[in-house]
Amino acid sequence: MFTTVFDKFISKIFFTALLVILVGNSGLAQSYGFIINERTEKETFSFEYINGFIVVELLYNHTFPMKFLFDTGASNTIVSNKTIVDLFGPTYGRTFTIYGADLSKPLYAHLVKGVHLRLENTTAPNQDILVLEEDYFNFKRLTGREIHGILGADMFRNHVVKINYQRRTIQFYKKGSDKLKTNGFEKSKIAVQKSKPYIVSDITLANESETKLKLLVDTGASAALLLNTKSDTSLVLPEQIIPGNVGFGIGGLMEGYVGRVKDLEIGGKNLENVICHFQKNEKSLDSLNLVFRHGLVGNYVLDRFEVILDYPNQMIYLKPTKKWKRKFDYDKSGITVIAIGIEEQTYYIQGILKGSPAEKAGLKPGDVIHKINSMPRLLLSYDGITKILKGKTGKKIKLKVKRGEQILKFEFRLKDLI
Q1: Residue 258, C-beta contacts closer than 8 angstroms, at least 6 positions apart
Q2: Do 162 and 49 share a structural domain?
Q3: Which residues of 212-241 are buried (b: 16+ CB within 10 A; e: fewer)?
Q4: What count of other Cβ atoms lies within 10 Å of the Cβ of residue 416?
Q5: Based on the domain organization, do 116 and 233 belong to the same domain?
Q6: CB 156, CB 115: distance < 8 Å
Q7: Beta strands 78-79 and 122-132: pairing type?
Q8: Contact at 8 Å (CB) between 406 and 400?
Q9: In a domain, 306, yes or no
Q10: Residue 268 sits in the same domain as residue 365
Q11: Which letter does DSSP use for residue 292 in this model?
Q12: pLDDT tens-place string over residues 288-299
């Protein structure tokens, strides 16, 4: 067995889920990743933006279409569905020990060599990937869609990567390409450590204190901002917070708070009242490779910009979109929703915040949502539910749920929780 570590933070629909995976670079070859055609200097492909996650479709071994999260916060590419990989009769190599967020329960991943991946017109031949023994991620709970794994930086760290959230496109450029235009972009230095990009940003906390923090630039996280409260003594919690479990990981529930920071300076812009998940655990290392950070910045901040990550030159370019000033909204109901079962349209209430409008109305964990306002069960989606429950303060919400064999109706009004 070989054991080293990389951290994964993934934000759920209303809270952040932490997945800590201990894998080994020692057993993985330095695969080149996706190859840009010699006749061009860039490759372009599209993505879906689902509940704050960037999702791309790959063709696995010339045959099987699979959906992956495009994840700058992961060093390695991981397939979470071993059943699909088994169909190709692979020879599994070394087995790596995986630990959950509590670092106590051992889980396992297997090395597979010689995998061919295709992303539209771009190919990555002869790759080494990791395959989980079981689907510890269960991405369907987080997105309502079938997601088969994580596309990590081993597939694109040799290129310049441009992400356009508005057009839903990602482009790979060759190093030094004349086709890459950076007019109007704010240029900043990043540190690329263990294939992951880190940026230093100025943050003003709710108590008016200002500090510079090292943040992982993580497109695998749908959170706006996550900070580890133990990583710096200046990280004082705001007065208005929601205490309790900020998420769940493969090792259990993660304790912390959700609140706001007054100001985040990034890309030459000051983002105000940013939703922030404050994690309480003692870990402030991104890996056992001793990469220190204070937290991460995720898609709900990054999607306000066009983003260029120049891995070879360790630079980031950010260009604000017209919507960069939009408010950071958060759930106003107190409901946490997950998708369980074969049917994608089945949404369960996983948790209820104490003292929230949903709790006072009488809703309970385990209730199955059948209708929310005028939206019936078969038309429900994570994005649709999220938009409704982040709606205007005071808006009336009508929920029809199934509890056991009963169909029950509830009403409440949205309220600012943070």
Answers
A1: 15, 241, 242, 246, 275, 276, 277, 278, 330, 418
A2: yes
A3: ebbbbbbbbbbbbbbbbbebbeebebbeeb
A4: 9
A5: no
A6: no
A7: parallel
A8: no
A9: no
A10: no
A11: B
A12: 445 788 999 999
Contact predicate 246/255, CB 8 Å:
yes
Q: Which two tokens stand for residue 215?
A: 């943040």
What DSSP designation does 222 have?
-
How many beta carbons lie within 10 A of that of residue 319, not counting itself? 17
pTM, to two decimals: 0.86
- In this structure, the chain runs to a length of 418
Of the candidates 273, 264, 275, the residue with the CA atom closest to the CA atom of residue 320: 264
Containing 305, the helix (H) or strand (E) segment is: strand 305-310
Asked if residue 182 is part of any domain, the answer here is: no
Report the distance separating Cα 79 and Cα 254, nearest Å: 24
Per-residue pLDDT of 18-61, as tens digits, reads 444 444 444 555 568 999 987 888 999 999 998 889 999 999 99
Please tell me the distance from the alpha carbon of residue 278 to that of residue 235, in angstroms, as a whole number: 9
Query: What are the C-alpha distances in Å from 353 to residues 14, 243, 273, 360?
Result: 11, 9, 22, 10
- Do 77 and 210 reside in the same domain of the chain? no
Check if the beta carbon of residue 66 is closer than 8 Å to that of residue 78: no
pLDDT tens sequence across 353-406: 889 999 999 999 999 999 999 888 888 887 888 889 999 999 999 999 999 999
Domain boundary among 278, 300, 322: 300
Contact 72, 221 (CB under 8 A): no
Instruction: Tell me the residue range of the domain where 115 lies.
Output: 6-173
Q: Which amino acid is at 69?
A: L
Do 166 and 199 reside in the same domain of the chain? no
Same domain for 197 and 147?
no
Instruction: Give the amino acid at 98.
Output: I
Same domain for 96 and 67: yes
Are 160 and 14 within one domain? yes
Fill in the amino acid letter for 113: K
- How many folded domains does the chain comprise? 3
